[in-house]
Fold each of these.
Amino acid sequence: MSVALRIRQEEPADREAIHALHCAAFGQSAEADLVDRLRENGDLVLSLVAVDEIVVGHVAFSPLANDAGLKASALAPLAVLPSHQRNGVGSALAKEGLRLLAEEGHGLVIVLGEPAYYERFGFKPETASRFLTPYDGPYLQGLMLSTIDPLRPATLHYARAFAGLA
Ligand SMILES: CC(C)(COP(=O)(O)OP(=O)(O)OC[C@H]1O[C@@H](n2cnc3c(N)ncnc32)[C@H](O)[C@@H]1OP(=O)(O)O)[C@@H](O)C(=O)NCCC(=O)NCCS
């Protein structure tokens, strides 16, 4: 990882770069558009950029409404510019996001993605399988950030921007 890499909250001037990097990383605009809709709707719980002279990575967290009294959020999307991948940027973004959410009293984070990648941060499919979401399956993983345990299976409602995803 570059020694100059910095992780910080997104600023208004980063928005175009964030959009462009999701398009470049995913090869389509769906994830970039999702970030824009989350922001427009006021549903970015946390939006971090990795900056190495330019914005090289971004991660968004959005609220998961539920009636179990859990402060829960979804990690999505996470992307790193193709030219900067496999240098620890994605890991640095995920770890800093999880650290900040734990500090703010979040109890649960859910992610939909490759278990081979997200297990390194402590995400487990078994944790997610205790909750009901529209994305249930082997790629849905969860990480408890606190010891608060919901007494019954909770339904997690994604922010409405996700409804527009293909
Ligand atoms: C996935 C992504 C965010 C990882 O960021 P990164 O900065 O390249 O990753 P890091 O350098 O922190 O970690 C590299 C490790 O992740 C692994 N990895 C990267 N992408 C992976 C994937 N899709 N599945 C499994 N492992 C993956 C690498 O093999 C490497 O493993 P190692 O540490 O055992 O060598 C980045 O590759 C990316 O933007 N990909 C395209 C968009 C995407 O798929 N986002 C995730 C949506 S769930």
Amino acid sequence: MGLGDQIMASGMARGAAARGKRIALGDGRRIVWEKTSFDIFRGNPNVAPPGSEGAPDLEWLAYYKGHRLYNRRVGDRWVWNLSFRAKPGEIFFDQVETAAGMRHGESFIVVEPQSAQWKTVAPNKDWGVANFQAVADRLRGLGLRVVQFRGEQSAVALRNVEQLATTSFRDALAILARASLYIGAEGGLHHGAAAVGIPAVVLFGGFIPPAVTGYASHTNLTGGAEACGLLKPCKHCRAALARISIDDVFNAALHHLRARGGEAAGRTGT
Ligand SMILES: [Zn+2]
């Protein structure tokens, strides 16, 4: 999958076309894209697709599957590169995608209670469906519209939370671009929220450090843990997630919604 990885790559490539360059993601000889690269980079003028090796405008960046710059594998864990900083990515929607992204309206809160359950690390990033349900219930109690995406690999559906059908990850991001807030685990959608300029409350826990794959515009909750990078179920990660309270997430959500409300008021006032 690696959707988040491709979105981070789009952040690294940002601005290349403006200086007459394209970023070649690969080993210096071969551009290495995955299926998700084609999805995320569609329409992006800053990256060079496979087949353009040898073009005169390339800048090579050694960022590809198995060589991600922000981590390296040592035994059964990731060791994080603490000098790496994710920059917000970019998704270049075409007119059809942008229009489709508006079909569910706007100013809703997207909650994603589970992320990439097929990965062995999933338990180390799982805050718990019941906790997300409690946050959703409290937000709904304030009269706010809370939604969740339904796609092919959708997580469990939260009760009383509007389920928005999506046709692809890009479609989900086009809808997310109309949201007022994202709440969920560290993963593809938190990278997506940063790319479409939406604030987020991100449940990091103890697996991966926000300093590496988090964004300054988001609230990144670790439960006070140092990131371990362990790829098998980890007590330390479980304890870190357990220290993040429903209040922590709810209050961070309100903080972002108020900040955004202020912005909107500012816009209409001028
Ligand atoms: Zn851990």
